[in-house]
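User: Quick sanity check before I run a bigger batch. Here is a single chain. Can you write out its predicted 3D structure?
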Amino acid sequence: MKSFIKYTSVVITVLLLLLGSLRLHPYYHLAKSQELIVYSIVNSPDDTLKIVFIGDSWAAYHYNYDKELEIKLSQMGQSAHVFSVGNVGAKSHEIYERMFSTTKPVLMERPNYCVISAGINDAVAKLGKEYYVHHYMLILQQLLKLGIRPVVLEMPEVNYRAIASREPWTMRIRHILSSLMTGSELYGFDSYKTALIQAIKKTDMQSSIIYISADSWNAAGYQDKRGLYLSDEIHLNAKGYAVLDSCIASEILKDIREKQLN
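Assistant: Done. Predicted structure follows.
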């Protein structure tokens, strides 16, 4: 009995230490709003539509399909220059901070639109909806300060269970503890999506952004029968990007037409 109590005490102590270390981990540190500054922007006389795609791996891998989106827009009657810059594994905090470093040069070109892919890695790490929304709103605020219209890609449905199955056991335990601490679901993102939509409405940003829901181009996510994902069931393949880009092009052109009518 004494050995059992001793063992239980050790386990509880270890869990408490792990929870404490999670809270102190840099991932949980929120970026300060004081970082919101407007840096110098290079204006261009070129009338060609400029679109940048920033964020996580979905943005990083889109770089290979930038020309395809340009061609698609050209076929729809709009000349455009598209440039994607993303970082594999980037969470919302890092994506925001990179707006002042590696992403800064493309934003200084004064693009008309900025497509944002963020949140999958926040959800995988179980960082919580508050953490995600805090940094996503900073991203949106900074883009609007720069006169760039944000295009929000709603978090897509990826196979979170497959991601977890490939993680080492130490990472799995850490994510389970993080989920308990932040109240995040283990295999989903609904709370993140809902919280972001609520924050956008609360700040009356609806008319200042383009919001592309996942259902508008791929309601079934990685289970879509059209085969839009790579074998990892996390990232899009060429066909998947073609479907996504068709939706992005249509929404941007729709936005341009509405502006012309007003």
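The CA atoms of residues 43 and 224 lie 41 Å apart.

User: Great, the batch can go ahead then.
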